[in-house]
């Protein structure tokens, strides 16, 4: 949690304090399913009645998430209710936005748990809920504590069924909070749902939240003080969570579908600890908090979900933080939008923050990642990453790998990344390597078939032992794009096999790896990065300017590395024959048509005819 605060100083950014809106964003809320009347509820228990009544036993192992289509409810009449449906109005809830419905809803939940599972149904209405005076004190109080498996919480749609959270006595949480006296969790309010497995409850699985709005009545202010501010109640209130998962035993198969979660001050969906199994976010709308939209340490499937947004107050701190640091875990994000900042002129926060051991996998595909500081931050460790067919726009940088030693108990380094078929626009570097140690080799980094406009393809530090499988191929550099921003923006001793780049510029002013030499030296030492190297200005217009590559730099080039070297504004550039870096028999003048050279099997550059 709060990784970005430890990576990036925000002193140069102005945080806009926005008054959270009480109204609901009907234009963005999507009733993808039919509104279901109380007498026409379709019962969709995850398990059969036999399994639903049985205790979960055996050895837990994280499941593999299998992608598949998400289908809406079928049209036409739905089956009549069965005894496994528990209508909260039958237990005294009014849903009129004026009455405290907490006790009635708790009674419906208790009845479903006593029955071994079932659907707790919320007809259309606004259900005001709050902690009760008789509730036992807790560091992380929750209005509804779920202690058993096989439960579905279902409403009539996210614009029709609203769970609205308040302080005890239905007091406004914006003006009322508890001061804890603790240094970390400095203030306390409430969470809506807590699923916490203990030795008393056993493992908990198969919990679904569907077709409702879970509203914390707080919202984003731009104050990210972790633990909250006792004097004002502002900041990142760690107790203010819509749905929180944790426990000493497995918590598995949690589904949040067609649900809006908004106006909190902490992580709106939180799943922490080493016992989280699978969490699925399907067709959800999550926004408006000083904390993360979603923070998970487990298997995650996110499909058709929006985190953040473009309206004032939609902001979140980070969109998604995922810590795949347990047993082999899989994160899949598809057909979704992550937009941390509502104001495109003052972006803050990261769209995705990912840490994953070599046994875990991340897939991000067919999604939009916009208006973030970093679109994706790979922090400390990550492997088996597939970023494909996404749109990145208006990010400070699209993707960054960073090793800062934040978690010394885990290994560091990255491997097996495929970045393919994405579109990057106004997003700084499509891929930025930020490694301050240089102690690891990044093997199998493939950047293929992407399109960049108004940005650069690569940047950062490419240090460490020699990388293998570093490939940049078939990319398109469109309007306002370049290989790298300038020679100083790419440092290190590892170079990609860079081929088949399409450059849509008409001259060398923005294309390729451009080099100027403003010194008085008669030899310019270069380190080509891409498949096009442009020699621009030197200080010897009346003489020859020799071009060389150092023997130390040569060690970083893979066999087959190829670049075409052009002269642009001056024609006196000459490749120097030197057995330390090439096999030329004589100096080679560089004309406007360029000279194509390639690293051969002996590790020396040779001319390619």
Protein traits:
mainly beta; Pectate Lyase C-like; 14-stranded parallel beta sheet; 2 domains; disordered N terminus; elongated; 52 strands; 609 residues
Which helices and strands occur, and which strands form pairs?
Elements: H1 3-7, H2 49-52, E1 85-87, E2 96-100, H3 102-114, E3 118-122, E4 125-130, E5 142-146, E6 151-155, E7 161-166, E8 178-179, E9 187-188, E10 191-197, E11 204-210, E12 213-215, E13 243-247, E14 251-257, E15 260-262, E16 269-271, E17 278-282, E18 285-287, E19 294-296, E20 299-303, E21 306-308, E22 320-324, E23 330-334, E24 337-339, E25 350-356, E26 361-365, E27 368-370, E28 374-379, E29 381-388, E30 391-393, E31 397-403, E32 413-420, E33 423-425, E34 429-435, E35 443-448, E36 451-453, E37 455-462, E38 470-473, E39 476-477, E40 481-482, E41 490-492, E42 497-499, E43 502-503, E44 513-515, E45 523-525, E46 532-535, E47 545-548, H4 551-554, E48 562-567, E49 573-575, E50 588-589, E51 595-599, E52 605-607
Parallel strand pairs: 1-3, 2-4, 3-6, 4-7, 5-10, 6-11, 7-12, 10-13, 11-14, 12-15, 13-16, 14-17, 15-18, 16-19, 17-20, 18-21, 19-22, 20-23, 21-24, 22-25, 23-26, 24-27, 25-28, 26-29, 27-30, 28-31, 29-32, 30-33, 31-34, 32-35, 33-36, 34-37, 35-38, 36-39, 37-40, 37-41, 38-42, 39-43, 44-46, 45-47, ...
Antiparallel strand pairs: 8-9, 48-51, 49-50, 51-52
